[in-house]
Specification:
CATH topology of the largest domain: Alpha-Beta Plaits
Strand order of the largest sheet: 7-6-5-4-8
Organism: Actinoplanes campanulatus
Number of strands: 12
Keywords: Proteasome
CATH architecture of the largest domain: 2-Layer Sandwich
Number of helices: 9
Protein name: Proteasome accessory factor C
Structural class: alpha+beta
Helix content: 25-40%
Shape: extended
InterPro entries: CBASS_pafABC_assoc_protein, PafC-like, PafC_HTH, WCX_dom, WYL_dom
């Protein structure tokens, strides 16, 4: 068994430190250090690090706050870290299942690290890890293997492909160029004869495909994508969307590429490029009160029309019973 590193020990201590201090307001630093088996100096360094820890936003009300009065310390704002670092049975099982699924995902390059983490969690979970839960991804593996074999054959392919940004399924003929993995997803890069451009097709969005009796022949202008920064590279030709987001919607700035974030008190004004306004409409319609669309006007009008249609459905009579005369 490998020895724990000082950084790992410190991380575990920091995750437990806030709930420990919350339960002991005004505790002596020397007493807390003795309980945690560290020196007073180390504990004070841990407290200084906690000053700059907290939730995304990292402004007032987001960071952990505390009061140090001489040799006494009290947590005044916990930033949500109010529970000890312990997994309940449901959380432990969910983590085991997630790691097993990740280990079964084709093309993952960090399988050794995943298996080591899974072994540790299963050891800590005890009998719970023996629950009758098996995770297999045979469909993904089979599809990936078949696409790879088709690409290796050197022939052109006919694809039935789903495009979520437009919520449509299309048939197209492509000339395969290579297989690659980006951001945990497997892609087929090919020259699309319909679009007359190089395209990336996510394997799990290929509904069906067949080999053609003609060789794959990408034209000279079929240049591979630069995927070092990810698949999506927003450019000025794409629609620009402006959103006003509250705390519950700030995750958007971490999950999607954004061009600008302007903080206006508790709300942020966010601008981002999208591939298609139809995708933006479907995405934003389900975000709730934490996200408000500011522009462009076309997107606002789309969402207003969608909302009006939905309200109209609620107002309309349902079923034949509404048309029947009342019994007299």
């Amino acid at each position: 068994m490998s020895a724990r590193t000082p950084s790992a020990d410190r991380l575990g201590r920091l995750l437990n430190l806030v709930p420990y201090l919350l339960a002991r307001p005004g505790i002596l630093i020397s007493e807390a250090a003795a309980d945690l088996d560290v020196t007073d100096k180390q504990l004070r360094e841990d407290l200084e690090l906690l000053w700059v820890c907290g939730l995304p936003g990292y402004g007032p009300g987001d960071l952990i706050d505390m009061a140090i009065d001489g040799d006494h310390v009290t947590i005044s704002h916990d930033a949500g870290m109010d529970k000890p670092l312990r997994l309940n049975p449901d959380e432990a099982l969910a983590l085991v299942v997630a790691l097993r699924m990740l280990a079964e995902t084709p093309g993952i390059g960090t399988r050794d690290a995943i298996e080591r983490a899974l072994a540790k969690i299963e050891n800590a979970a005890g009998d719970l890890a023996d629950a009758p839960v098996a995770v297999k991804l045979p469909a993904n593996q089979e599809r990936l293997a078949k696409v790879r074999a088709a690409v290796a054959s050197g022939n052109a392919l006919r694809l039935t492909y789903y495009t979520p940004s437009r919520d449509e399924t299309t048939d197209r003929v492509v000339d395969p160029m290579r297989m690659l993995m980006v951001g945990g997803f497997n892609y087929l890069e090919a020259w699309c004869r319909r679009a007359e451009a190089t395209r990336l097709f996510r394997i799990d969005r290929i509904d069906a495909f067949s080999e053609l009796d003609e060789p794959s022949a990408p034209p000279v202008g079929a240049v591979p994508h630069d995927v070092t920064g990810g698949v999506f590279h927003p450019g000025p030709e794409l629609p620009l969307v402006t959103l006003r987001v509250g705390r519950g919607g700030r995750w958007i700035t971490e999950y999607y590429p954004v061009e600008q974030v302007v903080r206006e008190g508790p709300e942020w004004l966010v601008t981002m490029r999208v591939t298609d306004l139809g995708w933006a409409q479907r995405f934003l319609a389900g975000q709730g009160r934490d996200v408000t669309v500011v522009g462009p006007p076309e997107l606002l009008e789309r969402i207003r029309a969608q909302a009006a249609t939905a309200l109209g459905q609620y107002a309309a009579p349902h079923g034949l019973a509404a048309d029947r005369p009342a019994a007299g």
